[in-house]
Amino acid sequence: MCSTELSEGLLSILRKLKSVPDQEVRILLLGLDNAGKTTLLKQLASEDISHITPTQGFNIKSVQSQGFKLNVWDIGGQRKIRPYWRNYFENTDVLIYVIDSADRKRFEETGQELAELLDEEKLSGVPVLIFANKQDLFTASPASEIAEGLNLHTIRDRVWQIQSCSALTGEGVQDGMNWVCKNVNAKKK
Amino acid sequence: MKLKRFLLRYYPPGIILEYEKGGEMKTKSIDLLDLTPATDIDKLVEEIRRAEPLVTTSRIQQVKYLIVRLQEKLSQQDDHKFYLFKVLRAHILPLTNVAFNKSGSSFITGSYDRTCKVWDTASGEELHTLEGHRNVVYAIAFNNPYGDKIATGSFDKTCKLWSAETGKCYHTFRGHTAEIVCLSFNPQSTLVATGSMDTTAKLWDIQTGEEAVTLTGHSAEIISLSFNTTGDRIITGSFDHTVSVWDVGSGRRVNTLIGHRGEISSAQFNWDCSLIATGSMDKTCMLWNALNGKCVATLTGHEDEVLDVCFDYTGQLIATASADGTARVYSAATKKCIAKLAGHESEISKICFNAQGSRILTGSADKTARLWDSHSGQCLQVLEGHTDEIFSCAFNYEGTTVITGSKDNTCRIWR
């Protein structure tokens, strides 16, 4: 996967906002704060991940993969800015939801947020990939356990997948993105 | 017709005549765009007297005095150094655009947090939060020169009109079917124009709150719009690579400027409405005859997309900002590049002149704003402090205060 540095000026934000041509894919990266969204984004773009601070707004990167240009929007996950997630729903092709697999205390909270996202009209039918992140930590729950806890099997209105990964080491990330590229057409017809 | 009084306009240099005609008060302006401290006053006054019947022999001394004052203003040395005055942290998400009112007493900031905030420039205090939009507040404007109203355009597809004094919402303009990304009041402050990702622009009547006309014809998103100084024409720049010139009264398309080989990023009129400058992703800026829509020059040199263009107030200079990290200044007369502004370490997204035309301000993804000498291209100051890229920046009319809006959720006042 080769990445291109994407400038994020206001104008390029508008260009990323428009309904994009066939080979461009708009991916929304959501999840609770400290789930590892920005680390994942930087891992995707092959960038340095040693100094990452909580995202107050958003980050955008473009990544080339399997003939697609993936425009990935990483949106800050702190509680007070979660109501603003819907700012970014328009024209979303794939939703990636990131979970800190080692933070059991917040499984309920993250499940609730995910359920609300899946109820959003503007995201209806959008394929969803759930990254069970931080598998490098030995306290991490396995993906199967998280899938069960979140009742993922009850999702019937779209294609979905759970993928265990470590944004830190990169393990599993590529597998997840392969799934994204394979299923992007589900929405883009 | 009876002349009532003269008003002085410093930038661009001019004299406004207030006169009575048929019991009605009217104004007209004598533009002195070429005035310099060296201009021969007697010759100029004689020219004015011949061209303007309202300026009779008995008024000549008065006009001379006004021109001297304009010349004094023009010869003032500008050595203002800017220091960080305040960091405004009230927005909880990235800022989009910023704008001053004419006097510079207050300014506004739009944000991803769906609000627009009104600020007192002198104290840095928050005066109002304009709440009601359901998505990003992207485009914002004061109805300058009056400054009593504010318009906000949002990704929620609506535009709202507000009282600048009370923060009350007068109207919500509904009709666009996609994000509103640019807007402007007409100079008379009777209309608001909005440009949208739905490929149309609309003109809205401020009094009634009704849609006046829809400008239909672009085949892709409208990204930039601007009225000319008289307010009878509006231009729209689009991702369809063209710029359209519209008659404001009828909503009819008068011209289509075809020539760019990439999306348009910005389209602007010069003060006397004779020229249009357009910036494009094709790495060039083009100049067009505003009357017949013919291209008069292609300004080249940038090695990457041109992201913003602007004229100085008198229309003598054109500045371009590029994704190549440089800005350039061109002469409108010779169409030649007279200065290259090099120093930014990343793309420049916004560029503007001060009202005097002596300074250029640039805002960049390298987290800095920079101040440049318009003629020499020398970098005079680097405004450092933002922790993420700068999306927008502006001078006040006096040229003594700068505001910068950033992705780091803050606005900074420099003075």
UniProtKB/TrEMBL annotation, chain A:
GO terms for cellular component: centrosome; Golgi membrane. Keywords: Golgi apparatus, GTP-binding, Lipoprotein, Magnesium, Metal-binding, Myristate, Nucleotide-binding, Protein transport, Transport. One of its GO terms (biological process) is protein transport. The keyword Nucleotide-binding applies. The keyword Transit peptide does not apply. GTP binds at residues 31-38, 77, 133-136. InterPro entries: ARL2/3 (IPR044612), P-loop_NTPase (IPR027417), Small_GTP-bd (IPR005225), Small_GTPase_ARF/SAR (IPR006689). One of its GO terms (molecular function) is metal ion binding. Pfam families: Arf. It is a peripheral membrane protein. PROSITE patterns: ARF, RAB. Mg(2+) binds at residues 38, 55. It is found in: Cytoplasm, Cytoskeleton, Microtubule organizing center, Centrosome; Golgi apparatus membrane. SUPFAM superfamilies: P-loop containing nucleoside triphosphate hydrolases (SSF52540). Belongs to the small GTPase superfamily. Arf family. This is ADP-ribosylation factor-like protein 3. The gene is ARL3.
UniProtKB/TrEMBL annotation, chain B:
WD repeats lie at residues 88-129, 130-172, 173-214, 215-256, 257-298, 299-340, 341-382, 383-415. One of its GO terms (biological process) is determination of left/right symmetry. It holds the Pfam family WD40. InterPro entries: WD40/YVTN_repeat-like_dom_sf, WD40_PAC1, WD40_repeat_CS, WD40_repeat_dom_sf, WD40_rpt. One of its GO terms (cellular component) is transferase complex. Keywords: Cell projection, Cilium, Cytoplasm, Cytoskeleton, Flagellum, Repeat, WD repeat. Gene3D superfamilies: YVTN repeat-like/Quinoprotein amine dehydrogenase. It is found in: Cytoplasm, Cytoskeleton, Flagellum axoneme; Cytoplasm, Cytoskeleton, Flagellum basal body. The keyword Ion transport does not apply. SUPFAM superfamilies: WD40 repeat-like. It comes from the Eukaryota. The keyword Iron-sulfur does not apply. Interacts with IFT46. Belongs to the WD repeat WDR69 family. Required for axonemal dynein assembly and ciliary motility in ciliated organs, including Kupffer's vesicle, during embryogenesis. Facilitates the onset of robust cilia motility during development. This is Dynein assembly factor with WD repeat domains 1. The lineage of its organism: Eukaryota, Metazoa, Chordata, Craniata, Vertebrata. The gene is DAW1.
